[in-house]
């Protein structure tokens, strides 16, 4: 994942946390109101804090996002006990210049037809609110840090639970 | 996590997949329409395929679920490249007998006041639809398996993407 320099320390912390996981679970609301998620590789967090992904324009999630632009991105690393929740809104579009700029060799197995594939599209997520459950190195502290976040959603003495709010 | 025997092979597969991860990211819709997720330890998949969690009745997610009972549970293990999405509906309630039955010593760090804590509650999720992105053992096959699921949402030759639909 590419990380551009962020405008403040909170967003930099967020960039570092999601870079450690890389793969997001993107949750969208379906037409019948049910919530669905699927894995997506994160390509970039740009200088404005927006997150960028490639998508196939023919995939099911395009219709879901067109209808309901609010999305959630979760980044979970169970072995490290790092968890991030990002609430934001998504935009799907094609921009050949941006797709060329984001293209990297490691994404090729996902999209073997390359950056010029007519089905390739961009998914841009604007972060409105982000929360994380982070914990220090030792096993018990992590467990307890996670525990407090799970049960109360509050900051605790050993772990860390923070919120980044970008809503105006 | 406790796994009760499941009614069919698909649900058994689902039980095995989520047992490998253990911690779910539970996504709910907030009153303003935004989607929010947080980590939760999975306690049991019962014989009817329902998933059970403890929660603090005073936590923020209680209000969110009261308003919008549709939820998503995602289970992600990035190192193993296993990803599960469960669409379902949630119910929050107190039942002392069930809480006693679910209580295990390993959950105590999360809920230090024990099974009789008046703030302890149950979160029950009924599975309506489940999808998984699973992949065989070797590194490149996993990458490619994940790749195809990411770009097309379809089954591919090397990985495996399956759906369990429990809606009537």
How much β-strand is present in the residues of chain A? 35-45%
Which term fits the overall shape of chain A? globular
Strand elements of chain A, count: 9
- Largest interface, C-beta closer than 8 angstroms, per-chain residues: A-B, 51 and 52 residues
Radius of gyration of chain A: 17 Å
What pattern of helices and strands is seen along the backbone of chain A? Answer: EHEEEEHEEHEHE
Oligomer: homodimer
Q: Helical content of chain A, roughly?
A: 25-40%
Q: Let me know the average pLDDT of chain A.
A: 79
Q: Mind describing the biggest β-sheet of chain A?
A: 9 strands, mixed
| Poorly predicted tracts of residues of chain A | 136-159
End-to-end separation of chain A: 27 Å
Provide the structure class of chain A. alpha+beta
The number of helical elements of chain A comes to 4
Task: Describe this entry's structure for a reader.
The structure is a homodimer of 168-residue chains. With 168 residues, chain A is α+β, with helices and mostly antiparallel strands. Chain A is globular. About 14% of the residues of chain A have low confidence. At the A-B interface, strand 2, strand 3, strand 5, strand 6 and strand 7 of A face strand 2, strand 3, strand 5, strand 6 and strand 7 of B.
């Amino acid at each position: 994942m590419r990380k551009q320099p962020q405008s403040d320390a909170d967003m930099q912390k967020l960039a570092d946390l999601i870079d450690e996981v890389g793969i997001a679970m993107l949750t969208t609301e379906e037409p019948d109101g049910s919530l669905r998620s699927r894995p997506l590789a994160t390509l970039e967090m740009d200088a404005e804090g927006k997150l960028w992904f490639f998508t196939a324009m023919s995939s099911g999630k395009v219709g879901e996002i067109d209808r309901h632009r609010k999305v959630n991105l979760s980044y979970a690393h169970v072995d490290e006990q790092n968890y991030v929740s990002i609430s934001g809104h998504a935009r799907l579009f094609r921009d050949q210049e941006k797709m060329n700029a984001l293209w990297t060799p490691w994404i090729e197995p996902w999209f073997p037809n390359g950056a010029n594939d007519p089905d390739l599209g961009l998914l841009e997520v604007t972060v409105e609110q982000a929360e994380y459950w982070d914990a220090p190195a030792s096993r018990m502290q992590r467990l307890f840090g996670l525990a407090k976040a799970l049960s109360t959603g509050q900051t605790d003495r050993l772990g860390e639970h923070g919120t980044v709010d970008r809503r105006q």
